[in-house]
Every structure is written in C-alpha cells, then in structure tokens.
Amino acid sequence: MLPLSLALICSALVVYKLASDFVTEAYDRALYDSALDLSRRLRLRDGRLTVDLPPAAADMLEIDDIDRVYYAVRNDDGNLVGGAADLPRPQPSENRRPDYYYARYLGQGMRLVALRVPYDPDNETMFAQVIVGETLIRRRLLAEEILVAVALSQLVLIAMICISVYLGVGHGLLPLGRLRAQIEARSHRDLTPLDEPRTPREVRPLVHAINELLQRLQRAIVSQQRFIADAAHQLRTPLAGLRTHAELALREQDLAGVRERVRALMHATDRSARLAHQLLALALAEPEASATAPMSAVDLVAIARDVTAEWVPQALAHQLDLGLAAAAGSLRIRGNAVLLRELVVNLVDNAICYTQPGGQITVDVQHDAATVTLSVEDDGPGIPPGDRERVFERFQRLAENRTEGCGLGLAIVREIAQAHAAEVRIGDGASGKGTRVSIRFARIDAGNSGALTRQTAAASGPG
Ligand SMILES: Nc1ncnc2c1ncn2[C@@H]1O[C@H](COP(=O)(O)OP(=O)(O)O)[C@@H](O)[C@H]1O
Ligand SMILES: [Mg+2]
C-alpha cells in the first residue's frame, strides 16, 4: 500500500504542475486580449494621450464575478493617463512583446500583462504602456479542480487494482490451500508422494521438492526400521544363549561340569555386553546424536597412544605385536575425544581380531600442512578391494571370517569420521598384504612434530 500511496502523491504533484501551467497559459491569453482591447481605446486628443473608456466598458473590464481586474495606462513619459496609479509595473524592458509577470497589489497576488503600443499614427516612435492585471482566484480554483478530478480517478484506479490483486492472489493461492488440506489430512505414517501432476504448474516444483524429501524420509525410516529389526535379532541370539547356558548349568551335577557351563555363560555375557556397547556407540555416532556432541581441539597422537597402550594386553593374548608410529608431540584436530577414541578402538579391535598370530599391527598419526591422517595397519588377510565399500555397512561381515563380531565396527568408524568431516579409506598394508584403514582429518594448528619413530609399546610373538 505504501508504494502505491507514494506513487499517487508523486503523480498528483506532477498533474498539479501541468494543470497550473495549462491554466496559466489559457488565462494569460484572455488577459492579453483584455489589454489589447484596452489599447484600441487609446485616443490622441489635442496632442495628448487619453483613454476612451465609457463607464459601461470600464465596468466590463473591471467587474468580474470571481477575480478583481485592474488596469493602468501611461504615456511615454511615464505619466498615468488612466486606471490605477499604483498598479505594479513590470521590470523595464524594451521589446513590444507582451510582458507577463506576478506581483502583489492591495494585499493580493496578481497576474499582470504589460503592452507597449504605438498610439500616434503620425509618430511611430510614441508608445503607451498598457497594464492589465487580475487576481489569481479563478486560476487556482481551476488548477485545484483538475487536481481533484485526476486524484479521484487515480484513487478509484488504485482501489480497483488492489481489489483485483487481492482477488487474484486469493484465487492463485487456492491450489496451495488444497495442498495444505491434503497434507493436514495425512497420518504421520503416510509418506506416499503428493499428487504431483494434478497440482498447478506454479507450485509443481515445490510439490516435487516435498515429494523428494518424503522419499528420502521414507528411505531413512525403512533403513532405521531394518536396523532396529537387525539389532533385535542380534540381541536375541546371545540372550537366548545366556538362558540356555544357565539352564544347562542348573542341570549339571558335578562341579567341573557347572564350571564349564558358567564359563560359557560368561563368554555369552561378554558377547551380549559387547553388542550392547556397539549398538550404543553407533547410536551416539549417528548424525542426529553426534551433531550435538561437544567439539574441541583434540590431540590425535595422545588418543592413539592411549588406545594402543590399553590394547597391548589383548594383542599379547593373540600373540600380536601392537605398536605406535607417530610424530612425537601433538597433532590437533577439531573433534570429540570420546567419539575419536571409539573410532581408534574399533580399528585396533578389528586388526587384533583378523590378524593371525605373529602378525604386526601399527597405529600411526601422520600429517601434512593441512591434514592429519590416522591409520591402523596390519599384515593379516586383508579386505578384498571389491568388499571395501560393503564392510562399512551395518551388520555386514565378510563371509569367510569365523571370528565373533556383529558387523558394526566399521559402520561406527564411518559415522564418526563423517561427524568430523573426515575421509575414510581402506587400502593394502605396506608390504602389499594386510589392511590399512586410514582417516584423514582437517588439521587445526601447525603444532610441533618430532622425528617419526616406532615406539614399540609392546612387542611379542612366538619366538
Ligand atoms: N583389519 C581387518 N582385516 C581383515 N578383515 C577386516 C579387518 N577389519 C574388518 N574386516 C572385515 O570387515 C568386516 C566388518 O568389520 P566390522 O564392521 O568391524 O564388523 P565385525 O568386526 O564385527 O565383523 C569384518 O567382519 C571383517 O570381515
Ligand atoms: Mg569389528
């Protein structure tokens, strides 16, 4: 509404200016005609200039129902011959063209015209000055009438525009209203696409975008449901195992038999606990949860060192040589220490799990100017290139492995890497055999980096 009002005011100003120009021109012509009439009444009597203006004619000239009209005639010497002596005179000018001007007279604004007319047929050098002036009332009234007429018609026009815009927008939004009703009527379970072809062309891209979102949501929900089903299934197996072992232990008569059953029971409990831990870790690493995980400057070298030291006993139990090769000093990235620890633990756990006795496992943290790369390398069986994408999926394990596990480790690793905008790669080990999983993070400071040394946290193996 404001722009329209401004436009209305501007156009009214322009119209007023144009109208008063036209009015001035029209009334000036009439004023000039009066001055010309008067100049025709100049007479030369006994060599003296006079004005032959009978009272009726003077009335005609002066009496007007709206404006007051005044005149003055002077001879060449400037002496008044007829009319009002104090009527304002124009600026001195030599030409004979009518001279129009504004002035104040008797407290009123006036428009005046001054003519220089020859009055002696025998002497072309004798001129009289004829001035006729009128008040401005009629001129103003006319200009105002024009302004009011134009402004009124514009107001009507604007009102009509507003009404048609209002009705047009309302009509144009009808399909959106229908769409809203369609969405409102849905249950939260109904993620089928909205009826795209039947929506009007203008909102079709919007409906298309909503449908794509619904599709993504549908896929996410399906995968979430599958995950829950898988998790329930995975949990049920070890729990059923627990119960079976407990029942068998109860039936056992001799102590050695009971001990055997209880050992199996403990083992099944460990597996259940581990599965529960992995499920929880995955839930925490998922984008919805990890987005709110507090991030700070974290030293990857320190985390790698701690995890390596912590897992040495397990490595020893599997007759493996677990060591750390990393820059002495610190290499910092922006991250969540708890999640990053979980990531390293899962990689080290896999290396220990899948490497045959006598093997070597190296945890490494390297850097360049902009990145820090953490890697865990072993000389085990390796992961075939064709499976290097698949192993990241949840509950996916390679067919040939007979070790215990639930297939969540690398899925957790990938979720945590993604939460840190890091890149995960699976490659071969240094000697062409084994596995090297590396994760490249963005580095936050240059830090200090010492010589690369393999600080063997523990070295053990047969022989
Ligand atoms: N270091 C490794 N060496 C060989 N195979 C590996 C290694 N790490 C992972 N894998 C393979 O990838 C699969 C998926 O690993 P993961 O997601 O950690 O699940 P899990 O260890 O519970 O089986 C494993 O079952 C294994 O076949
Ligand atoms: Mg694993």
List keywords for this structure.
463 residues; alpha+beta; Beta-Lactamase; Helix Hairpins; Heat Shock Protein 90; six-stranded mixed beta sheet; five-stranded antiparallel beta sheet; 9 helices; 48% helix; disordered C terminus; binds adenosine-5'-diphosphate; binds magnesium ion
Task: Characterise this structure.
With 463 residues, the protein is of the alpha+beta class. The chain has three domains: 2-144, Beta-Lactamase (2-Layer Sandwich); 201-285, Signal transduction histidine kinase, dimerisation/phosphotransfer (DHp) domain (Helix Hairpins), CATH 1.10.287.130; 294-455, Histidine kinase-like ATPase, C-terminal domain (Heat Shock Protein 90). Helix content is 48%, strand content 23%. It is built from nine helices and 15 strands. The strands form four sheets. Strands 13-14-12-11-9-15 form a six-stranded mixed β-sheet, covered by helices on one side. Strands 4-3-7-6-5 form a five-stranded antiparallel β-sheet, covered by helices on one side. Strand 3 (69-74) and strand 4 (80-83) form a beta hairpin. Residues 447-463 have low confidence and may be disordered. Bound molecules: adenosine-5'-diphosphate and magnesium ion. Adenosine-5'-diphosphate binds at residues 350-351, 353-354, 378, 380-381, 383, 391, 397-398, 401, 405-411, 435.
